[in-house]
Design a protein that fits this description.
Radius of gyration: 32 Å
Number of domains: 2
Number of helices: 7
Helix content: 10-25%
Shape: elongated
Order of helices and strands: HEHEEEEHEEEEEEHEHEEHHEEEEEEE
Strand content: 25-35%
Distance between the termini: 96 Å
Length: about 400
């Protein structure tokens, strides 16, 4: 019996089947290879970013602690400092033959996210972007911090305090240094700031975050303390009240949310500034927007009698008073209570106590903690003001 071979039709059928299988299988295999390379690239990038994060955690003071300027560290620097292996890092998904390895001068850009209040670590392959903020250059076997001063962002806080605290005063009108903040006192004129086309005054600067506590230059709507459950001083109630009084909604993008506000009551007749501030700190709530406290108003005054407890003198030597400027605070509620009364800033009479919380009406001056920002100015009628952007 003769062996029977494949007919031409059968061979063609096999070839067609193989071709069809190839049409399905080869793209799938190629796709899997491509996806694997992309996934491996992501892992490589994550490894580089983690190395940058580790460097940042061990060199925190090298970052811009005012969160305005980025800090970049190159692969070469991370390898040199043993945060990465010193071998060239092969690129699993090169776009061309000359891109087979990650560029030694590509970098991790470290940027502070104001919304999450955390640093972000992002790999950047475009080396031209690795010198937009602070960067490092090796000189005499040392990595030296550099910045293009034409690109450097300088903050409002640093400008007001001074790079070396040269603007801080120990006496007279000006900015004073306290344990946890810098405070304006006396007849100061350089703490005006424009926010959304409205004028505010800077009360203080937080030492840690460099955030600015500001108060509106204009009062809003005469209202009773007891209206809208004002007496509760609850976050939501206070926010709604301030927005109702001012007729505006506050932009969350520049306001520090859930900031602690001192609302403790003063139980004694000792109104020295030390006792007032200590009593206020005994109770706190978190709010986005509020009003000034008695202690903050007193602390803006340089009058000795006021600081020793004579509240009638607190409008003296005080930039927040109409005694000094025609845009000072007048007839305004504060956050501070004393038994059944509330401290009110009186026009030219320092501080008085209001006991009728239902019928008597006083103004509300919006007070907020805003994020530190880049220093910019705006000229109005020949005067230069800080402009917040």
């Amino acid at each position: 019996m003769k062996n029977k071979g494949f007919t031409l039709v059968e061979l063609l059928a096999v070839i067609v089947i193989i071709g069809l299988v190839a049409l399905v299988a080869v793209p799938a295999v190629n796709r899997n290879i491509t996806e694997s390379r992309i996934e491996l690239e992501k892992i490589q990038v994550q490894t580089i970013e983690l190395a940058g994060k580790k460097w940042a955690s061990e060199n925190y003071n090298e970052l811009d602690l005012e969160y305005l300027n980025t800090t970049s560290v190159t692969i070469k620097m991370l390898q040199d400092l043993d945060y990465l292996t010193k071998d060239k890092i092969k690129h699993p998904n090169p776009v061309s033959d000359d891109k087979k390895y990650f560029d030694d001068n590509s970098c991790v850009i470290i940027l502070y996210n104001f919304d999450t209040k955390q640093y972000e670590y992002n790999y950047e392959s475009d080396t031209s972007k690795c010198k937009d903020g602070y960067y490092y250059k090796k000189e005499n076997d040392e990595w030296v911090k550099k910045i293009d001063y034409g690109k450097k962002k300088v903050s409002i806080a640093t400008t007001l305090i001074g790079e070396n605290k040269e603007n801080i005063v120990a006496s007279g009108d000006g900015l004073y240094e306290e344990e946890d903040k810098y405070v304006y006192r006396g007849n100061v004129t350089n703490n005006n700031i424009i926010i959304k086309d409205k004028m505010f005054r800077i009360i203080s600067i937080d030492k840690n975050t460099k955030s600015l506590k500001v108060i509106s230059n204009s009062g809003n709507n005469n209202i009773a303390w007891g209206s809208l459950a004002f007496n509760s001083r609850d976050n939501n109630v206070m926010n709604k009240l301030i927005e109702l009084a001012s007729g505006e909604s506050f932009d969350d993008s520049y306001i520090n949310k859930n900031v602690k506000w001192n609302i403790g009551s003063i139980s004694s007749t000792d109104y020295s500034i030390e006792n007032v501030i200590s009593s206020e700190k005994a109770s706190q709530i978190n709010m986005n927007v509020g009003i000034i406290s008695l202690g903050e108003y007193m602390d803006a005054s340089l009058d000795t009698d006021c600081r020793n407890g004579d509240l009638t003198k607190c409008s003296k030597k005080n930039y927040l008073s109409t005694d000094i400027t025609d845009v000072g605070i007048t007839d305004a509620w504060t956050l501070t209570t004393n038994n059944s009364s509330v401290a009110v800033i009186s026009n030219g009479n320092g501080i008085t106590w209001e006991s009728d919380l239902i019928n008597e009406l006083h103004y509300v001056y919006n007070t907020m903690n805003i994020k530190n920002a880049e220093y910019k100015t705006k000229e109005i009628n020949g005067k230069i003001y800080i402009e917040y952007n």
